[in-house]
Design a protein that fits this description.
Length: 264
Amino acid sequence: MAASGRSFFFCVQVNIKSDIDRVTASFSGKLQGQIPYAASRAMNATIDIARDEIVKDMRSVFDRPTPYALNGLRTVKTNKRELKVSVAFKDEAGKGGTPADKFVAPQVFGGNRRLKRFERALQRIGAMPSGSFAVPGAGAVIDSYGNMARSQITQILSALQAFGEQGYLANATAKTLSKRKKGTRSKRGEVYFALPRGRNGLKPGVYKRTKFAFGWALKPVLIFVTSVGYSKRLPMLETVRKTFDKHFASQFEAAFVKAVATAR
């Protein structure tokens, strides 16, 4: 049994075909034909257990993981010919989101995370320097999972005209920006602006100016930093290996007994 790490999308793969081929060769007749089938059933059952164990680990090591992250795991099942299974974080995202494999992989391997979609948008228009990452500032709106609210990110991208061709209609017009700056009786005026390299003692980032009766208040919403380092926190490879060590033999035994009993 062998486990591997990264591939094109982040996954852990288990392949036991060579082991089962050796075991199969030591049997003959009806028993020989049932071993690969039983092995495939056992592998599929065990990789599902491993997926559930990884989700438990995520709940333990992460602070308020989102349902999107917890549901980002998928398993790839096998058949009696391949005898190869894997558990992976999805490499596709929902509307406006970031693929689960991109933000979970640094938690498994350590190092910097990848750029988020809104960060790439800010870099594309020159609002954020290349090689930088954006982290929430004092003026950021934080949701119940500890992440910056998507609605505020949308407001920033709209105000800075950062949406690309597919989303250009979401970019605020000059007239809209003027209205937002003036405000209304029920809503204070506000302005978002970017300082790619900082100025007048302000750190590089995105700032929000809010209008009050006595003047304007300024708060950093995003701060640009050169690294967002993560330590290895999610022992995904180790969890898969432990799960197979603990459960595969019993799963195989049960599947083999059933296969032999029902064999024609």
